[in-house]
């Protein structure tokens, strides 16, 4: 089984479009404007410092404001349902489960079966609708499908998580606050050197909501090729009492891959760990 077969590449790109081969609760009260399409948008790659456990005052203040703006309360996990649309216009039912910072599951119901990505910390496995499976490199699995869970769960309290202030940065005519979050690839002895993973966050300085995240991901350690992934978070609404983006887009190297539209959301159902593995 070759990793770069088109179907498996689709899943290696976290359910990206195949062209890359060459509670519960109704929505209410939008709190942020829509973001334009990611197609062609270029943002700088995050820079890993290797410094863990450092939080600059400006960055910590901004992330604290983000968490307060989201009205997270006692958030521990969430399950969301909606649709995923690919650039060609085909739309399919989708579901997203998040638990803490390290557990993610994203399913897409296709006519011939279900595509799924399941992440547990540095372990990530994807499966096509035909049942073919493959593994993601640990750093890509740790980066997650979305940046929000790590911010919500660990950014402020994590002893080995760093937050660095990047000042303001212009994105599509708007000045956003750029924050870098850096965290260890694996847990272990805090006094020992460890590889880290970095993500840049672009926040609206007025609403303090996350607009974009940027990271560099790899889908095959054997091929040693990296990709710049940008995710946009827009159409923020109140679902089940928390403020969440109901429109999420992903691009890889400037090419739009998918749009996830969230319609319903349920909090704190305490899914078993087996939910996030095959």
Average pLDDT confidence is: 87
Measured distance between first and last alpha carbons = 19 Å
* Largest sheet: number of strands, sense, barrel closure: 13 strands, antiparallel
CATH architecture classification: Clam
Short description:
Helix content is 12%, strand content 43%.
Give me some keywords for this one.
278 residues, outer membrane lipoprotein receptor (LolB), chain A, disordered N terminus
Task: Please explain how this structure is put together.
- With 278 residues, this protein is mainly beta.
- It has one domain: Lipoprotein localisation LolA/LolB/LppX (outer membrane lipoprotein receptor (LolB), chain A, Clam), CATH 2.50.20.
- 12% of the residues lie in helices and 43% in strands.
- It is built from four helices and 13 strands.
- The chain has helices spanning 6-12, 57-69, 138-143, 148-154; strands at 77-85, 91-99, 103-110, 113-120, 123-127, 133-136, 162-171, 174-184, 196-203, 210-218, 226-239, 242-252, 255-267.
- It has a 13-stranded antiparallel sheet with strand order 6-5-4-3-2-1-13-12-11-10-9-8-7.
- A hairpin with a 3-residue loop joins strand 2 (91-99) and strand 3 (103-110).
- The longest helix has 13 residues, at 57-69.
- It is globular, with a radius of gyration of 18 Å.
- 41% of the residues are buried.
């Amino acid at each position: 089984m070759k990793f770069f077969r088109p179907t498996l590449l689709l899943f290696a790109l976290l359910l990206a479009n195949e062209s890359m081969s060459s509670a519960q609760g109704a929505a209410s009260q939008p709190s942020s404007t829509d973001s334009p399409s990611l197609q062609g948008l270029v943002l700088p790659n995050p820079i890993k410092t290797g410094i863990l456990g450092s939080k600059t005052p400006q960055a910590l203040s901004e992330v604290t404001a983000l968490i307060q703006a989201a009205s997270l309360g006692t958030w521990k996990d969430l399950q969301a349902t909606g649709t995923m649309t690919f650039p060609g216009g085909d739309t399919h039912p989708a579901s997203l489960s998040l638990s803490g910072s390290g557990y993610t599951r994203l399913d897409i119901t296709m006519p011939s079966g279900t595509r799924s990505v399941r992440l547990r910390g540095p372990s990530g496995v994807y499966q096509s609708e035909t049942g073919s499976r493959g593994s993601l490199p640990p750093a890509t699995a740790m980066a997650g499908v979305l940046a929000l869970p790590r911010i919500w769960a660990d950014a402020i309290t994590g002893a080995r998580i760093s937050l660095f202030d990047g000042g303001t940065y212009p994105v599509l005519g708007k000045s956003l606050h750029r924050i870098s979050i850096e965290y260890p690839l694996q847990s272990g002895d805090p006094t020992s050197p460890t590889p880290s993973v970095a993500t840049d966050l672009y926040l609206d300085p007025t609403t303090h909501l996350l607009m974009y995240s940027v990271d560099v991901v790899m889908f095959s350690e054997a091929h040693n090729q990296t990709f710049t992934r940008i995710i946009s978070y827009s159409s923020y609404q109140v679902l089940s009492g928390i403020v969440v983006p109901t429109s999420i887009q992903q691009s890889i190297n400037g090419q739009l891959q998918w749009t996830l539209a969230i319609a319903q959301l349920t909090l704190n159902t305490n899914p078993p760990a087996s939910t996030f593995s095959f």
